[in-house]
Every structure is written in C-alpha cells, then in structure tokens.
Design brief:
CATH class: Alpha Beta
Strand content: 15-25%
Keywords: Hydrolase, Protease, Thiol protease
Distance between the termini: 17 Å
Number of domains: 1
InterPro entries: Papain-like_cys_pep_sf, Peptidase_C48_C
CATH topology: Adenoviral Proteinase, Chain
CATH architecture: 3-Layer(aba) Sandwich
Order of helices and strands: HEEHHEHHEEEHEHH
Family: Belongs to the peptidase C48 family.
GO molecular function, one term: deSUMOylase activity
Helix content: 25-40%
Protein name: SENP2 protease
Length: 223
Amino acid sequence: PLFQAMESEISAAFDSGEPEDVLSRAFKLTVTREDICTLQPLGWLNDRIMNFYMGLLVERSKKEGYPAVYAFNTFFYSKLSSTSHKGVRKWTKGVDIFKHDVILVPIHLRVHWTLLVVDLREKTIKYFDPLGQKGDHICETILKYLEEESREKRNIELTASEWTLHSMGTEEIPQQNNGSDCGVFVCKFADFISRDKPIIFTPEHMPYFRRKMVWEIIHQQLL
C-alpha cells in the first residue's frame, strides 16, 4: 500500500496541476512541476533538479556514518573554466572545503551532464562521464583550483605530485544507452559515491531512479 501511495503521488506530480506549481522548496531553491517533469522518461534534467538533488546528498552526509560531502552547484565549473580562481573565490565564503571528505562537482557541458569527484582522504580527482569521454583537462582545472583555494584560504601549499587524476573508463562505470539519461547517471554516481558504495547500477535502473527522485525531491528525503 505504501508503494502504491508513492506511485500515485509521483504520477500526480507529473500529471495534475499547472507547470508553475511549486512542489518543493529547500536549499534556496524552488522546484516547480515543470522542473519535476524533466524526470519523466527520456526528459533532460535541468539545473534546478541537479542542484536540489546535490543538496539532498549534502544534507544526508551530515548524519552519522556518512562521509562529509560538499557539493558545488552546476554553474561553478563553467564559471571557473571561463574565468579563474578569482572568478569563483567568493563561492566558498565562510566554508573550508578541505574539512570535507568528498567534493562533488556536477558539470554541464552544453548538452551533457558529467561529474567530477574530489576525494580529499585519498587525494584523488576522478571524472565520471556516462558517455565515456575523457575529462583529464577538467581534472587538471580542478586541481589547480584546489591549489589556489588552499593557498588563499588556509595558507597551505598542496603538493600536486601527491594527487592522482583519473577519467573513469567505460569498463569502470555504467554507461547511458540513450541521449537523455546523463543527468540521472550523474545524480546516482554522486549518490553511491557519497555513501562510499561501489557503483553497481545499470541503464535498466534509470526509469526506477527517475520516479524515486521525484518522491525524494518532493519529500526532501532520500530513500
């Protein structure tokens, strides 16, 4: 019965009411029915959905037993890559990102979502692309950012040679089998990584993940 109630709630989110109806509000974000509808099959996830979901992951990471997670918003990387550390130095005002275990950087490449993950415990920077493209230059851009952030905020020099940069290969992580699931893949990569779990889902899980995310965003609670 609980599952049926959830299903009918998810269907109602897609089907009844006006596009501008507000369905969830948190993390200084407002999610409308129109935003939620990007979670319909083969929909393209927008920035609001991506940022809201990252907010849920950060919120969960404050609980006992989870790695401490910091997530940049989806506009961070494009701003950093088009300016420099100076262009984004205010983004971490009052925050020491180095006090976290994991930093998530969702990246929007024109029409494609990817994820960069900094593990401060392991000193690794990994790039996750559900289409299998390499992002070595993106890893290098973020390492340079971390060096400058550390120098400016903590007065500590990072030793670049101690860091491992790696673009995940197609045999290492699941790959999307259509042109529209990249956003869901990125959210789920981030979900599994922020629990220190191996990434074991497949493209077949996407329709289920999409519906689950609708419920989680409306209730501001990860299942």
